[in-house]
Each structure stands twice: as structure tokens, then as C-alpha cells.
Design goal:
This protein is an alpha/beta fold. The protein is built from 6 helices and 7 strands; from the N terminus they run E-H-E-E-E-H-E-E-H-E-H-H-H. Its EC number is 3.1.1.29.
């Protein structure tokens, strides 16, 4: 079993993949629709009980999911996620197509999870920031459906409001975490066939 240091030093890591949960770091944003990416990273780490630790020299917290996969949350706000993740990926030598962004998706209904590589950001500022700082759209996305806001509710108010909890959300978050795992293990195509059949 490899050791997990208290503070992760990128110079000491041999990482092939970054699994990045998108969200906002302050406690008041926990449990909101915009933070489902954070929830999926928590689910990913739950079986081992690993805790996200500061990454030396970077605005991020992370944990080794296994010896060559780093689960990450940026310490920045959602809209500036790339400012933390771009430099970290570069420092670790991880190519953009081995960065997996787990994020909320307005264009999918609740309880749906879809996986894809590249594509437009569809107005998602966290994805726009990743594109800017990775220098490409060719990173992998695990899209967690939150649906469109009801009439009279703005998109910012919708994404920053509390998400409905319960079995449906739990299964959705588990599927998102499993999707990220499968991508790193079996590739995107096989991961899509499993997850898309499930949700």
C-alpha cells in the first residue's frame, strides 16, 4: 500500500489522470446544484476514507485515488476553476485528455449522468475556465443533470440553490463517480456503455 502524505507535493507524484470535481469551496455552497461535482469526488474517495489534502504550491486540495489517479477540488470559485487546475495539470505532466471534469449540467434532467470528451461549454463558466487554462476543450466531462430552472427562477439562483436529496441523487452521484473510475480504467467508450445504460 502506498503512503498518502499530509500535504501532496506534485514533484513527488507520478499521476496519469486528474479527476476534478467542480464546485464552490465555501460551506454555504455545500449541497447546492453547482456542487454536485464536489459530491462525486467525495463519493469516489468514500470507500477508502481518504481526505483531500492541500497541494503544495497550488490552489487545490487533492487525494490519491490510486497510485496514478488524483482526485481534485480547486480552492478557487467555480468560475475560476481553470486557474487552479491548469497549472496543476501542467506541473504533473497530465495531458488535457486525461483531465476528467465532473460538473452540473442544465441540459440534462435530474438523475441523468452522461459522459463525453470535448465539446462546447454551453455557458458553464467552470468549463470555460478549464478550456482557457488547459488551452483546449479536449478534456473529458462527467455531466450530472440538474435540469433547467422553473419559470421565474434565474439560472444563478437555480444552480446555487439546494438540490433535492434522496435516493435519486445518491444514485446519480454514485454513477458519476463510477463513470470517472471507468474512464480511467476501461476508456471512455466502455464507460459510456455502462453509465448511459444505467441512468
Amino acid at each position: 500500500m502506498f503512503r498518502r502524505p499530509r500535504t501532496l507535493d506534485p514533484r513527488e507524484l507520478d499521476v496519469d489522470w486528474l479527476i476534478v470535481g467542480l464546485g464552490n469551496p465555501e460551506p454555504e455552497y455545500a449541497g447546492t446544484r453547482h456542487n454536485v461535482g464536489y459530491m462525486a469526488v467525495d463519493d469516489l474517495l468514500a470507500p477508502t476514507g481518504d481526505i483531500l489534502q492541500p497541494v503544495k504550491g497550488h490552489r487545490a486540495h487533492a487525494a490519491l485515488y490510486d497510485a496514478h489517479i488524483l482526485a481534485v477540488r480547486a480552492d478557487t470559485y467555480m468560475n475560476t476553476t481553470g486557474e487552479a487546475i491548469g497549472p496543476l495539470a501542467k506541473a504533473l505532466g497530465v495531458a488535457p485528455d486525461h483531465v476528467i471534469a465532473i460538473h452540473d449540467e442544465l441540459d440534462l434532467p435530474p438523475h441523468k449522468v452522461r459522459l463525453k470528451a470535448g465539446g462546447n461549454e454551453n455557458g458553464h463558466n467552470g468549463l470555460k475556465s478549464l478550456t482557457e487554462h488547459l488551452g483546449t476543450r479536449d478534456f473529458v466531462r462527467v455531466r450530472i443533470g440538474i435540469g433547467r430552472p422553473p419559470k421565474g427562477t434565474s439560472v444563478p439562483d437555480w444552480v446555487l440553490s439546494r438540490i433535492d436529496t434522496g435516493a435519486g441523487l445518491d444514485e446519480q452521484i454514485e454513477s458519476a463517480a463510477e463513470g470517472a473510475r471507468l474512464i480511467t480504467r476501461d476508456g471512455l467508450g466502455k464507460a459510456q456503455s455502462v453509465i448511459h445504460a444505467r441512468t
